[in-house]
Amino acid sequence: MGAPDGVTVNTIQPHQAVKEYTCPGCDLTIAPGTFHLAVVPEEAPDLRRHWHHGCWHKELRRRFGAQASRR
Ligand SMILES: [Zn+2]
What we know:
Blueprint: E1 7-12, E2 21-22, E3 29-30, E4 36-41, E5 49-51, H1 53-64, H2 66-69
Antiparallel strand pairs: 1-4, 2-3, 4-5
């Protein structure tokens, strides 16, 4: 799975997901124990956000279009 330039995408395995997060893609809760992604802007690591896998892929297509899907 590729990430666009400027962000680091970390996969969070179910056993690592011990807190609830709100996905910025759909505004729904990511329950503890859910496989998901943590997206960290390299320029602003404080702005790390947790995304559902599917929501991040939609976001990638929205932000970067076909460019991102080729990676
Ligand atoms: Zn989501």
